[in-house]
Design goal:
Blueprint (H helix, E strand, L loop, with lengths): L12 E6 L5 E5 L5 E3 L3 H15 L7
Antiparallel strand pairs: 1-2, 2-3
């Protein structure tokens, strides 16, 4: 299972309860940010973007 990473610093996060609406909350121990993502696919897309941005792969045309 892949670890959820902070959208601000990229550090691995851990579960931090739930919001009033029932969404999972996440906490980053590195930058002390608490965030939630309503749609898991948005978070997955963001993680893929981070991997591309900071990775060694080149963009295919």
């Amino acid at each position: 299972m892949r670890k959820i990473r902070c959208p601000y610093c990229g550090f691995p996060c851990h579960k931090y309860g739930k919001t009033k609406a029932g969404s999972q909350r996440w906490h980053c121990e590195n930058c002390q940010t608490v965030f939630s993502c309503k749609n898991r696919s948005n978070l997955k897309d963001f993680e893929l973007f981070q991997q591309w941005l900071f990775g060694k792969n080149v963009q295919k045309e």
